[in-house]
Design goal:
about 170 residues, mainly alpha, two-stranded antiparallel sheet, 5 helices, 2 strands, about 75% helix, Lag1/Lac1-like, transmembrane, sphingosine N-acyltransferase activity, transmembrane helix, membrane
Length: about 170
Amino acid sequence: MFVYASENITPIYFIHHMTTILLLILGYMTKNYLNGIVMIYLFGQDTLLMQFSKCLIKLQLPIIQQNRNQIRRILFYIFVLLWLYNRLYRYPLIIIPDLVLFASENFHLDWSILGYILILLLLIIFMVSLLWTIFILKIIISTLFDQKNLYHLDVQDIEPQYIEMDD
């Protein structure tokens, strides 16, 4: 059986987005709005950079079209630095402890149940970030050793890649 390669990561997207929605709902229910603000701010930065890079590549300016792959590489490596800093340093070492402390001091409901739910959801987001980091590192390794296009920044530029799956 052959499937489109990006379908392998779809369950991870689903888990990430459902967990984020649950964190936002939990923050709203407990009047802990810091959860939502932090999630949107922290995880929005690298997403904005990725979307900006896609828009930039789509511009039909000659200088951009001539240096298309170099621009992709530069923006992708900036994205990776931002990703690693936000998702593997700031989030687990600064944000999670601060959110847990803030929530433990300010929850209006029983901390024991909601606190564990909050910690579980925050850790799920961190685990998903680790999985995506592995995926990103594989892309970096493959692009460093051969000069392939960075297809993930502009999927429409390439033919769909199919992989064989065991039935």
